[in-house]
Design the sequence.
């Protein structure tokens, strides 16, 4: 998949998520939920965090958590978080 196809896929996924947002619960999601939220494997965002890349994450208690708004921005413009 080339970059343009990946961007188109992410934009479509973002549209789907925005439509379902009213049904979503908390503004914060754990790392596995966040990866699924953006349509990636559970370990995807963990790997980015360990490399110092990706959307911001906060350690809350013993869990790495991410805000949905940051994930939405990551899907709109992934290069901003490289």
Sequence:
């Amino acid at each position: 998949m080339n970059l343009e196809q990946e961007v188109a896929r992410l934009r479509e996924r973002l549209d789907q998520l925005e439509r379902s947002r009213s049904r979503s619960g908390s503004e914060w999601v754990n790392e596995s939920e966040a990866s699924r939220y953006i349509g990636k494997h559970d370990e995807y965002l963990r790997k980015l965090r360990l490399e110092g890349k990706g959307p911001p994450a906060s350690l809350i208690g013993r869990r790495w958590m991410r805000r949905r708004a940051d994930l939405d921005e990551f899907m709109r413009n992934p290069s901003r978080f490289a």
User: Anything to note?
Assistant: The first helix runs from residue 3 to 20. The helical segments are 3-20, 31-37, 44-50, 68-76. The chain has one domain: 3-81.
